[in-house]
Write a structure and sequence with these properties.
Order of helices and strands: EEEHEEEEEE
Helix content: under 10%
CATH topology of the largest domain: SH3 type barrels
CATH superfamily of the largest domain: SH3 Domains
Structural class: mainly beta
Distance between the termini: 51 Å
Strand content: 25-35%
Largest sheet: 3 strands, antiparallel
Number of domains: 2
């Protein structure tokens, strides 16, 4: 034993084991073999999670479908339900619009995650 207490490292995020140890630059769980970077885990926890209308977690580059018909200011036709939007980009929410995407026939626009479903 090196004299370290069991509270020096966080428990394993996979199995909850308290017997984790450090193997530079990772933390390792001897019970399930899971290895993780504690700094990356902290950064991931800090990032907001954006979910679609049914609770799927969205990420940059995902393809989504519009779930309800949307009226668009200045456009003669609405964006119809079922329209596929490819390669979305998540942005900081402004008025709830947290997706930046190019919609075919309408161009670049911002959408709310609550009106799309991940494919």
């Amino acid at each position: 034993m090196t004299g370290m207490s069991d509270t020096d490292f966080p428990p394993c995020p996979e199995c909850g084991s308290e017997y984790t140890y450090e193997m530079d630059p990772l933390l390792v769980c001897p019970e399930c073999g899971h290895e993780w970077d504690p700094q990356a885990a902290e950064e991931a926890d800090a990032a907001p999670v954006i979910k679609d209308s049914v609770g799927n977690v969205l990420a940059d580059g995902d393809t989504v479908t519009v779930v309800k018909t949307l009226k668009v200011k200045g456009a003669s036709q609405p964006i119809k339900a079922g329209t596929t939007v490819r390669n979305i980009r998540l942005v900081d929410a402004s008025d709830g619009h947290d997706i930046d995407a190019r919609v075919d026939g309408f161009g670049q626009m911002k959408l709310k995650s609550s009106i799309v479903k991940k494919i």
